[in-house]
Amino acid sequence: MKVVLACSFPRDEKLGSARTPLRLEPELARLGVEVVSLFAEDLPAGPRGRAAELSAPFRMAWAVEQRAAGADIVDIAGGDGFAYFRYARVRRPRQALVARSNGLWDLALAGEDHGLKSPLKRAASRVYQEQVLCRWEQSAIRAADVAVFLSRCDADEVVRRRWKTRDGVGAVNPGVDAFFADDAPLEGRKDVAFVGTFFHRKGSDVASRVMSELMRERPELGLTLFGSGTSPEAARAHFDESVRSRVHVEPPLSARELAARLQHFAVFLFPTRYEGFGIVTTEAMARGLAVVTTPTGAGADIVRDGENGFIVPVGAVPEAKSAVARLLDDDALRVRLARAGRAAATALTWGRAAEQLVLLYERALSRRRH
């Protein structure tokens, strides 16, 4: 089986979206799959800014057309696949097409805060996002033989919308790198961690309110933001002035660097509004942090409320604060949940993900041949 695995993301493992194809490539090769990978660097050079997004599907189609003549499967991430899929349906009808989703664009948009934009910019952005990017994504999913999602809830949502039938979708949870799993002691840990871009969709407003209140009440408590996507000053500005000195802001780290840093933290707070999966959640679980998150992505697929973490409603500050406080105050509870979370997360290997993906590739080939 020859597979073209394509995305328009930079080849950078610090980006969660790029880490998945980077980790899957060697695992697919181990299973005997010949893999040709395409990243942003492999596409024809394009314009900058918004024009880069608008041209990406067409630059992707050109790059894939050049490299996929003998491929059995073409697997393209997101809406960038729609242009090649239209071409392949006419010129390469025997080629099986897979639309790989890192998350549904319109659900991600619903979690953003557009309040800082002017009414005109909000209207223009909404038209562009909904009438262009969301339509491209829907077109790619509909055209594919199989659409692959990172979480079951996204696969279920696409079936509910009637974009695909049940046998036309699959869910493959990302793996967790083996170096996140070790036997680092769970007892005696302290402080709270947040990993990811610190903005509204990730629940920055909830996290800042929760931690401002808890840190005012607990002078010894600290918070570290990893990979906030903004300057330390801008990130700390979200928090009450009295606690800002205890908010530490770290730049994006490699997966190994993140694993090394996380092992001393007690709680992972991630009140995100929407995730295609949110690999940082399972990485934190594997590293022994007790997780407080919301029922989306990994929170829906992997976290079991009260068993291996806590699930709180989206936007719920009192519930999130209560959950974090319980874990900080009850070491036995925190260790129990952390231990169960570690077991659940370490079962998610990249080898397992590759095996599940090959089964979906075989389904796509079968649908195309019949």
Notable traits:
46% helix; six-stranded parallel sheet; Rossmann fold; alpha/beta; 370 residues
**Uncertain residue ranges:** none
Global mean pLDDT? 94
Principal-axis shape: globular
Beta percentage is 5-15%
* Count of distinct structural domains: 2
User: How far is it from the N-terminal to the C-terminal residue, by CA?
Assistant: 18 Å
Number of strands: 12
Q: What's the tally of helices?
A: 14
Q: Radius of gyration, rounded? A: 21 Å
Let me know the CATH homologous superfamily of the largest domain.
Answer: Glycogen Phosphorylase B
Order of helices and strands: EHEHEHEHHEHEEHEHEHEHEHEHHH
- In CATH, the architecture of the largest domain is 3-Layer(aba) Sandwich
User: Which sheet architecture does the biggest sheet show?
Assistant: 6 strands, parallel
* Secondary-structure class: alpha/beta
CATH fold descriptor of the largest domain: Rossmann fold
CATH class of the largest domain: Alpha Beta
Portion in helices: 40-55%
Oligomeric state of the chains?
single chain
- For the biggest β-sheet, the strand order reads 2-1-3-4-5-6
Layout of helices and strands, plus pairs?
Layout: E1 2-6, H1 16-30, E2 34-38, H2 50-67, E3 73-77, H3 82-91, E4 96-100, H4 105-110, H5 119-143, E5 146-149, H6 152-160, E6 169-171, E7 190-195, H7 204-217, E8 223-226, H8 232-236, E9 247-250, H9 255-262, E10 265-270, H10 279-286, E11 290-293, H11 298-301, E12 310-311, H12 317-329, H13 331-346, H14 350-369
Parallel strand pairs: 1-2, 1-3, 3-4, 4-5, 5-6, 7-8, 7-10, 8-9, 10-11, 11-12
Helix pairs in contact: 1-14, 2-3, 3-5, 7-12, 10-13
